[in-house]
User: Fold this.
Amino acid sequence: MPLRQKTNDILSPELIKILKIFGLISIGLVFTLSFFNTRRANNSGEDLTFHMTSSSRLYFLNVRAINYDREVRPDAGMILFRHGKRATLKSKQLLDMVIILNNPKDEAYLYLEPVSIDWPLEIKASLGGKEEIFQFKNGNNTDVLRYIKQLEPWIFNEAKFELKVDSNWIPLWSTPKEKESIKSILEDYYKLINERE
Assistant:
């Protein structure tokens, strides 16, 4: 009596070949895509909000920093960059936006620097009949970045800004040159910390 062949083999030789092919293609695809992943998980527990890479720092220093006035603070290990197109009248109350590079920590910060005025700051933004008043107290790097992010949509939509000095509202970032410099500072800063690619 001849033996009956099993016709119900789950892993036939053809199926094994197909699994090998798709398995190798899948592994190769995952391996290839891993080289293009610029956003990796942060498992270090460190806050990377202000972290700048060496390449972004070099790009800023070699290409973009030409547009800025530089102030070195060796005591703090920091370099301050103020845009060259900002208003610089000594007799006028101003508010500068400053990029700060902390090279020992590989971090970059934004700071609102009052000139001839003091904290707290009161800034009015108006655009197309809408108006909002922002009140900012001096704080740490995270606080100042949060303040600037509140102003950012108004900045990029060409809003009119005013700064409260004593009981009067004076124009802030009012000339086309000043408006362009503020936008440029924000774009350069976000490239430094790789927030917007």
About this structure: The mean pLDDT is 80. The chain has one domain: 54-193.
